[in-house]
Write the C-alpha coordinates for this entry.
Amino acid sequence: MELMIYAAPGPGSARYEQHMRLAQAAEKFGYSGFFEGDHYLGDDLPGPIDAWVTLAGIARETSSIRLGTLVTSATFRYPGPLAVQVAQIDQMSGGRVDFGVGAGWVEIEHRAYGIPYPPLKERFDRLEEYLAVITGLWRTPIGERFSYHGNHFRLENSPALPKPHQPGGPPIIMGGWGTKRTPAISARYANEFNQQPVGTESGDVSTAPTTGIDFAAEQFERVREACRAVGRDPSELTFSTTLTLCCGRTDAEIASRAEPTGRSVDDLRAFGCGGSPAELVDMIGRCAEVGASRIYLIIHDFDDLDQIELVASEVMPQLDN
Protein backbone atom coordinates (compact mmCIF):
# COMPACT_ATOMS: atom_id res chain seq x y z
CA MET A 1 0.00 0.00 0.00
CA GLU A 2 1.32 3.43 -0.99
CA LEU A 3 0.51 6.42 1.21
CA MET A 4 0.36 9.85 -0.40
CA ILE A 5 -0.04 13.27 1.19
CA TYR A 6 -2.84 15.45 -0.19
CA ALA A 7 -2.70 19.16 0.69
CA ALA A 8 -6.34 20.08 1.17
CA PRO A 9 -7.53 23.18 -0.71
CA GLY A 10 -10.05 25.59 0.73
CA PRO A 11 -10.49 28.28 3.37
CA GLY A 12 -7.36 27.21 5.24
CA SER A 13 -5.10 27.52 2.20
CA ALA A 14 -1.49 28.00 3.16
CA ARG A 15 1.45 29.94 1.77
CA TYR A 16 3.75 28.36 -0.78
CA GLU A 17 6.42 27.91 1.89
CA GLN A 18 4.02 25.78 3.95
CA HIS A 19 3.16 23.62 0.93
CA MET A 20 6.86 23.19 0.21
CA ARG A 21 7.71 22.20 3.81
CA LEU A 22 4.86 19.70 3.85
CA ALA A 23 6.06 18.16 0.57
CA GLN A 24 9.66 17.98 1.79
CA ALA A 25 8.55 16.40 5.06
CA ALA A 26 6.44 13.85 3.18
CA GLU A 27 9.49 12.93 1.10
CA LYS A 28 11.73 12.74 4.18
CA PHE A 29 9.30 10.45 6.06
CA GLY A 30 8.91 8.03 3.14
CA TYR A 31 5.52 8.86 1.63
CA SER A 32 5.14 7.97 -2.04
CA GLY A 33 3.57 11.20 -3.29
CA PHE A 34 2.54 14.78 -2.60
CA PHE A 35 -0.62 16.06 -4.28
CA GLU A 36 -2.42 19.39 -4.51
CA GLY A 37 -6.11 20.08 -4.90
CA ASP A 38 -6.90 22.27 -7.90
CA HIS A 39 -9.37 24.86 -6.59
CA TYR A 40 -9.61 28.62 -6.40
CA LEU A 41 -11.33 28.78 -3.04
CA GLY A 42 -10.47 30.56 0.19
CA ASP A 43 -11.86 33.61 1.96
CA ASP A 44 -8.95 33.93 4.39
CA LEU A 45 -5.39 35.10 3.86
CA PRO A 46 -3.23 34.20 2.06
CA GLY A 47 -5.92 33.02 -0.37
CA PRO A 48 -5.89 30.14 -2.84
CA ILE A 49 -2.85 28.85 -4.65
CA ASP A 50 -2.54 27.74 -8.26
CA ALA A 51 -1.85 24.01 -8.10
CA TRP A 52 0.47 23.74 -11.09
CA VAL A 53 2.48 26.87 -10.26
CA THR A 54 2.98 25.46 -6.76
CA LEU A 55 3.99 22.04 -8.06
CA ALA A 56 6.52 23.60 -10.41
CA GLY A 57 8.28 25.13 -7.42
CA ILE A 58 8.05 21.95 -5.36
CA ALA A 59 9.43 19.92 -8.28
CA ARG A 60 12.73 21.77 -7.88
CA GLU A 61 12.74 21.44 -4.06
CA THR A 62 12.23 17.65 -3.93
CA SER A 63 14.01 14.75 -5.57
CA SER A 64 12.07 11.49 -5.33
CA ILE A 65 8.44 11.95 -4.26
CA ARG A 66 5.73 11.84 -6.94
CA LEU A 67 3.77 15.04 -7.55
CA GLY A 68 0.33 15.74 -8.95
CA THR A 69 -3.22 17.03 -8.60
CA LEU A 70 -6.48 15.58 -7.28
CA VAL A 71 -7.83 16.75 -9.58
CA THR A 72 -7.29 19.46 -12.18
CA SER A 73 -10.56 20.91 -13.40
CA ALA A 74 -10.92 20.75 -17.17
CA THR A 75 -12.87 24.02 -17.00
CA PHE A 76 -9.95 26.03 -15.62
CA ARG A 77 -7.41 25.86 -18.46
CA TYR A 78 -7.29 25.20 -22.20
CA PRO A 79 -5.93 21.70 -22.89
CA GLY A 80 -3.13 22.79 -25.23
CA PRO A 81 -1.41 25.20 -22.83
CA LEU A 82 -1.99 22.82 -19.91
CA ALA A 83 -0.27 20.01 -21.86
CA VAL A 84 2.73 22.34 -22.18
CA GLN A 85 2.69 23.22 -18.46
CA VAL A 86 2.43 19.65 -17.22
CA ALA A 87 5.05 18.40 -19.68
CA GLN A 88 7.46 21.07 -18.50
CA ILE A 89 6.88 20.28 -14.80
CA ASP A 90 7.38 16.60 -15.61
CA GLN A 91 10.75 17.54 -17.12
CA MET A 92 11.60 19.75 -14.13
CA SER A 93 10.86 16.89 -11.74
CA GLY A 94 12.69 14.22 -13.71
CA GLY A 95 9.48 12.37 -14.55
CA ARG A 96 7.66 12.42 -11.20
CA VAL A 97 4.29 13.90 -12.24
CA ASP A 98 0.89 12.17 -12.11
CA PHE A 99 -1.86 14.06 -13.94
CA GLY A 100 -5.18 14.07 -12.09
CA VAL A 101 -8.08 15.51 -14.11
CA GLY A 102 -11.83 15.88 -13.79
CA ALA A 103 -14.81 17.68 -15.32
CA GLY A 104 -15.04 20.45 -12.67
CA TRP A 105 -17.80 20.80 -10.12
CA VAL A 106 -17.59 23.83 -7.76
CA GLU A 107 -19.73 26.46 -9.44
CA ILE A 108 -19.07 29.22 -6.89
CA GLU A 109 -15.33 29.35 -7.61
CA HIS A 110 -15.98 29.59 -11.34
CA ARG A 111 -18.22 32.60 -10.76
CA ALA A 112 -15.72 34.18 -8.38
CA TYR A 113 -12.92 34.13 -10.98
CA GLY A 114 -14.89 34.63 -14.19
CA ILE A 115 -14.52 31.04 -15.43
CA PRO A 116 -17.39 29.70 -17.58
CA TYR A 117 -19.31 26.87 -15.94
CA PRO A 118 -21.18 24.81 -18.55
CA PRO A 119 -23.97 22.34 -17.74
CA LEU A 120 -22.94 18.90 -16.52
CA LYS A 121 -23.29 17.10 -19.87
CA GLU A 122 -21.18 19.70 -21.63
CA ARG A 123 -18.51 19.51 -18.92
CA PHE A 124 -18.18 15.78 -19.50
CA ASP A 125 -18.17 16.27 -23.27
CA ARG A 126 -15.36 18.78 -22.87
CA LEU A 127 -13.48 16.44 -20.53
CA GLU A 128 -13.43 13.68 -23.15
CA GLU A 129 -12.07 16.08 -25.76
CA TYR A 130 -9.66 17.51 -23.20
CA LEU A 131 -8.10 14.10 -22.65
CA ALA A 132 -7.97 13.36 -26.37
CA VAL A 133 -6.11 16.63 -26.98
CA ILE A 134 -3.63 16.32 -24.10
CA THR A 135 -2.76 12.67 -24.72
CA GLY A 136 -2.57 13.37 -28.46
CA LEU A 137 -0.09 16.18 -27.92
CA TRP A 138 2.06 14.14 -25.56
CA ARG A 139 2.08 11.01 -27.73
CA THR A 140 2.64 12.56 -31.16
CA PRO A 141 6.12 11.47 -32.33
CA ILE A 142 8.78 14.18 -32.37
CA GLY A 143 8.93 15.80 -35.78
CA GLU A 144 5.27 15.09 -36.55
CA ARG A 145 2.28 17.42 -36.19
CA PHE A 146 -0.96 17.05 -34.25
CA SER A 147 -4.40 18.28 -35.29
CA TYR A 148 -7.72 17.79 -33.59
CA HIS A 149 -11.21 18.84 -34.66
CA GLY A 150 -13.74 18.50 -31.88
CA ASN A 151 -16.95 20.23 -30.89
CA HIS A 152 -15.21 22.22 -28.14
CA PHE A 153 -11.51 22.30 -29.08
CA ARG A 154 -9.77 22.66 -32.43
CA LEU A 155 -6.02 22.35 -32.94
CA GLU A 156 -4.29 22.83 -36.28
CA ASN A 157 -0.84 21.56 -37.19
CA SER A 158 0.60 21.72 -33.65
CA PRO A 159 4.27 20.76 -33.22
CA ALA A 160 3.11 18.99 -30.04
CA LEU A 161 6.02 20.22 -27.96
CA PRO A 162 7.42 20.08 -25.33
CA LYS A 163 7.34 16.39 -24.54
CA PRO A 164 7.04 15.15 -20.94
CA HIS A 165 9.97 13.35 -19.38
CA GLN A 166 7.86 10.18 -19.06
CA PRO A 167 7.37 8.49 -22.44
CA GLY A 168 3.76 8.93 -23.56
CA GLY A 169 3.12 11.41 -20.78
CA PRO A 170 2.43 11.29 -17.03
CA PRO A 171 0.02 8.67 -15.68
CA ILE A 172 -3.56 9.95 -15.76
CA ILE A 173 -5.69 9.85 -12.59
CA MET A 174 -9.46 10.15 -12.79
CA GLY A 175 -12.12 9.99 -10.15
CA GLY A 176 -15.64 11.01 -9.32
CA TRP A 177 -19.08 9.83 -8.23
CA GLY A 178 -20.74 9.49 -11.63
CA THR A 179 -21.97 5.98 -12.33
CA LYS A 180 -21.84 5.96 -16.15
CA ARG A 181 -19.63 8.49 -17.92
CA THR A 182 -16.99 8.66 -15.17
CA PRO A 183 -16.28 4.90 -15.35
CA ALA A 184 -16.47 4.93 -19.17
CA ILE A 185 -13.98 7.80 -19.58
CA SER A 186 -11.73 6.26 -16.93
CA ALA A 187 -11.70 2.96 -18.81
CA ARG A 188 -10.52 4.74 -21.97
CA TYR A 189 -7.93 7.12 -20.56
CA ALA A 190 -7.01 6.52 -16.92
CA ASN A 191 -4.00 4.80 -15.44
CA GLU A 192 -5.50 5.22 -11.97
CA PHE A 193 -9.03 5.61 -10.64
CA ASN A 194 -9.48 7.47 -7.36
CA GLN A 195 -12.60 7.41 -5.22
CA GLN A 196 -13.21 9.51 -2.14
CA PRO A 197 -15.69 7.83 0.23
CA VAL A 198 -18.68 9.99 1.12
CA GLY A 199 -19.21 11.06 4.72
CA THR A 200 -22.39 12.39 6.30
CA GLU A 201 -23.49 16.00 6.19
CA SER A 202 -24.85 15.81 9.72
CA GLY A 203 -21.85 14.06 11.21
CA ASP A 204 -24.18 11.34 12.54
CA VAL A 205 -22.68 8.18 11.07
CA SER A 206 -25.71 6.13 12.10
CA THR A 207 -27.71 7.84 9.33
CA ALA A 208 -25.29 6.84 6.57
CA PRO A 209 -26.75 4.36 4.04
CA THR A 210 -23.38 2.66 3.50
CA THR A 211 -19.87 2.88 4.79
CA GLY A 212 -17.33 4.98 2.95
CA ILE A 213 -15.25 2.01 1.87
CA ASP A 214 -18.34 0.20 0.58
CA PHE A 215 -19.13 3.19 -1.61
CA ALA A 216 -15.61 3.18 -3.05
CA ALA A 217 -15.82 -0.56 -3.68
CA GLU A 218 -19.02 -0.10 -5.70
CA GLN A 219 -17.42 2.56 -7.87
CA PHE A 220 -14.27 0.49 -8.37
CA GLU A 221 -16.44 -2.32 -9.71
CA ARG A 222 -18.21 0.03 -12.13
CA VAL A 223 -14.84 1.06 -13.51
CA ARG A 224 -13.76 -2.58 -13.85
CA GLU A 225 -16.99 -3.33 -15.74
CA ALA A 226 -16.38 -0.35 -18.02
CA CYS A 227 -12.86 -1.64 -18.73
CA ARG A 228 -14.16 -5.06 -19.64
CA ALA A 229 -16.77 -3.46 -21.93
CA VAL A 230 -14.03 -1.86 -24.06
CA GLY A 231 -11.75 -4.89 -23.96
CA ARG A 232 -9.32 -3.53 -21.39
CA ASP A 233 -7.91 -5.60 -18.54
CA PRO A 234 -9.03 -3.90 -15.29
CA SER A 235 -5.79 -4.99 -13.64
CA GLU A 236 -4.02 -2.36 -15.77
CA LEU A 237 -5.52 0.33 -13.52
CA THR A 238 -4.39 1.39 -10.09
CA PHE A 239 -7.32 1.90 -7.71
CA SER A 240 -7.01 4.44 -4.92
CA THR A 241 -9.01 6.25 -2.30
CA THR A 242 -8.77 9.59 -0.51
CA LEU A 243 -9.27 9.86 3.26
CA THR A 244 -8.96 12.73 5.72
CA LEU A 245 -6.10 12.13 8.14
CA CYS A 246 -6.68 12.56 11.87
CA CYS A 247 -4.26 10.41 13.83
CA GLY A 248 -3.16 10.63 17.44
CA ARG A 249 -1.82 8.51 20.26
CA THR A 250 -4.54 9.63 22.71
CA ASP A 251 -8.22 10.57 22.46
CA ALA A 252 -7.32 14.17 23.32
CA GLU A 253 -4.75 14.32 20.52
CA ILE A 254 -7.21 12.83 18.03
CA ALA A 255 -9.91 15.34 19.05
CA SER A 256 -7.47 18.23 18.71
CA ARG A 257 -6.50 17.14 15.22
CA ALA A 258 -10.14 16.73 14.21
CA GLU A 259 -10.84 20.44 14.79
CA PRO A 260 -9.11 21.79 11.63
CA THR A 261 -11.05 19.31 9.48
CA GLY A 262 -14.46 20.60 10.60
CA ARG A 263 -15.64 17.02 11.14
CA SER A 264 -16.42 14.95 14.20
CA VAL A 265 -14.08 12.25 15.44
CA ASP A 266 -16.82 9.65 14.87
CA ASP A 267 -17.25 10.76 11.25
CA LEU A 268 -13.50 10.66 10.66
CA ARG A 269 -13.29 7.18 12.13
CA ALA A 270 -16.08 5.97 9.83
CA PHE A 271 -15.26 7.89 6.63
CA GLY A 272 -11.64 8.93 7.00
CA CYS A 273 -8.35 7.82 8.46
CA GLY A 274 -9.26 8.85 11.99
CA GLY A 275 -8.12 7.35 15.28
CA SER A 276 -5.05 5.75 16.74
CA PRO A 277 -2.24 4.28 14.61
CA ALA A 278 -3.77 0.83 15.16
CA GLU A 279 -7.16 2.07 13.92
CA LEU A 280 -5.50 3.53 10.82
CA VAL A 281 -3.87 0.20 10.08
CA ASP A 282 -7.31 -1.44 10.23
CA MET A 283 -8.89 1.17 7.94
CA ILE A 284 -6.06 0.90 5.42
CA GLY A 285 -6.47 -2.88 5.50
CA ARG A 286 -10.16 -2.48 4.61
CA CYS A 287 -9.19 -0.26 1.66
CA ALA A 288 -6.79 -2.92 0.44
CA GLU A 289 -9.51 -5.57 0.68
CA VAL A 290 -11.66 -3.72 -1.90
CA GLY A 291 -8.74 -3.29 -4.29
CA ALA A 292 -7.12 0.03 -3.35
CA SER A 293 -3.33 0.08 -3.52
CA ARG A 294 -2.89 3.82 -2.89
CA ILE A 295 -4.37 6.07 -0.23
CA TYR A 296 -4.24 9.86 -0.35
CA LEU A 297 -4.26 11.30 3.16
CA ILE A 298 -5.91 14.72 3.25
CA ILE A 299 -4.00 17.22 5.41
CA HIS A 300 -5.77 20.32 6.78
CA ASP A 301 -3.11 21.64 9.17
CA PHE A 302 -0.03 22.08 6.97
CA ASP A 303 2.17 22.94 9.96
CA ASP A 304 1.39 19.75 11.89
CA LEU A 305 4.33 17.76 10.59
CA ASP A 306 4.30 15.64 13.76
CA GLN A 307 1.12 13.93 12.56
CA ILE A 308 2.60 12.72 9.28
CA GLU A 309 5.74 11.64 11.13
CA LEU A 310 3.55 9.63 13.53
CA VAL A 311 1.91 7.81 10.63
CA ALA A 312 5.28 7.20 9.00
CA SER A 313 6.77 5.72 12.17
CA GLU A 314 3.83 3.73 13.58
CA VAL A 315 1.54 2.93 10.62
CA MET A 316 3.75 2.53 7.55
CA PRO A 317 5.88 -0.28 9.02
CA GLN A 318 2.72 -2.37 9.49
CA LEU A 319 1.54 -2.07 5.87
CA ASP A 320 2.16 -4.55 3.06
CA ASN A 321 4.25 -2.89 0.35
User: Anything to note?
Assistant: DSSP finds eleven helices and twelve strands in the chain. Residues 200 and 208 are 6 Å apart (CA to CA).
